[in-house]
Specification:
412 residues, alpha/beta, 16 helices, five-stranded mixed sheet, six-stranded mixed sheet
């Protein structure tokens, strides 16, 4: 009891007087052992690097952040580097940091959101022309204190938490309930999903990325059943048709092809172009699913179909947009029923942005979101929000700033 009383008194005294000898030694040892890298300043700030890696571009932002006030941040440098510019992720990272090597602005804490699988310390960036890399080896080589690689949807989840007004659009004007779960969903190259729940002990949300896009695709009518069979027929070797297979970038030209096959619309030059390009794409996919040109080819086909559908210049494209919005809304409702996210449902991705006007002005998405029978009333109370900004890099920044703040709380 006496020791505890003495310790409390000593701590109170030191808080008034500042650090004394023993604490200075602890801090000094910690600096030398962990932060003995030129650039990390224990006086109250640190340099961090946040990144967001997709199939086409790598985005980086170098910032100076306060370790005491995590809202105080200063942008030092940012850039977007095409993934095709360098042969590896390591080379791309080094190219961005080249001008800061051996300076005080070289980052100590790095967090990158990556679209791709992570197995232990090994990461493969999907759709980028790079070999896999080892997180721990790269951390040592680059002399970082921390190198964190997040799943891209995990980074998006933390980005949702850091969003500012003007970065999103409310769909149904329902206010989020503080402290309740949130979900993120977005369709693009794949169909990504993540859950956010609040940690009561810290008063902060934690993001849990999932693979919900790979659940079984459950057809609700003859059109959806026909699409399922069309996808199975066109993509060889599939033993499982997931929701992602029917509601992602690649599914859009497949939808068009299927809907044209059951329509009475005559062949047109536009359809001929789509059909030829789709067949070329499927041949490449059958030989090498990781071929670098696949994403670009899919994006071109998606743009052609969506542009004609949203402009209503091609009837099959119009039907394709409707079917896609139908499925996207339905799966959003499926995920919402499992989590009950009264804290908000956040719709992400480039395709969401393309469909934004359609989602806001047409009934297709919202009707299929709500079409859950007697559970419709629950879903009507959940906020639907379209994320307008690219928030992956914002989420990586939020994550690493949290880490800096926690370490500073412990050691300073």
């Amino acid at each position: 009891f006496f020791f505890f009383f003495f310790f409390k008194q000593k701590t109170a005294y030191e808080m008034q007087r500042g650090l004394v000898g023993s604490e200075m030694c602890i801090r000094d040892r910690y600096q030398r052992r962990v932060h003995g890298i030129q650039g990390f300043q224990m006086e109250g700030f640190a340099y961090i690097l946040a990144g967001d890696i997709g199939g086409t571009n790598a985005r980086f932002a170098l910032k100076k952040v306060s370790k005491v006030n995590h809202e105080k941040r200063e942008l030092i440098f940012e850039d977007k580097i095409p993934t095709s510019n360098h042969p590896t992720f390591e080379a791309t990272l080094k190219a961005f940091l080249a001008k800061f090597k051996d300076t005080e602005k070289y980052p100590t804490h790095v967090c990158i959101g990556v679209a791709g699988p992570k197995r232990g310390n090994i990461v493969k960036v999907t759709n980028a022309p790079w070999p896999e890399f080892d997180i721990e080896k790269l951390k040592i080589e680059m002399k970082f204190v921390e190198l964190i690689i997040l799943n891209d949807f995990e980074a998006n989840g933390y980005g949702v938490l850091a969003m500012q007004p003007g970065m999103y659009t409310e769909v149904n004007k329902v206010a989020p309930v503080a402290g309740k779960p949130k979900i993120c969903i977005g369709t693009g190259t794949g169909l990504g999903e993540a859950i956010l729940t609040q940690d009561p002990s810290k008063g902060q949300y934690v993001v849990y990325p999932g693979e919900g896009g790979h659940v079984d695709f459950a057809a609700r009518n003859q059109i959806e059943l026909g699409l399922l069979e069309h996808v199975r027929k066109k993509i060889k070797g599939l033993d499982h048709i997931s929701y992602e297979r029917c509601c992602c970038g690649l599914s859009i030209p497949l939808m068009y092809d299927f809907l044209h096959s059951i329509s009475k619309e005559p062949d047109t030059p536009f359809h001929g172009t789509i059909k030829v390009r789709l067949e070329e794409l499927l041949k490449i996919l059958a030989v090498d699913p990781d071929e670098n040109s696949i994403t670009q080819r899919v994006d071109e086909l998606d743009r052609m179909i969506f542009n004609a559908g949203l402009d209503k210049t091609d009837p099959i494209c119009v039907q394709s947009v409707e079917l896609f919005a139908n499925l996207y809304g339905s799966e959003t409702g499926n995920l919402a029923l499992k989590i009950l996210p009264y804290g908000g449902i956040y719709l992400l991705s480039t395709i969401t942005q393309v469909l934004k006007k359609h989602i806001l002005t047409e009934k297709t998405f919202i009707e299929n979101f709500l079409a859950k029978g007697r559970m419709k009333g629950l879903l009507e109370k959940m906020p639907l929000i379209i994320v307008d900004a690219e928030i992956g890099i914002l989420g990586a920044e939020e994550y690493v700033v949290r880490l800096i703040h926690q370490q500073s709380y412990i050691f300073t």
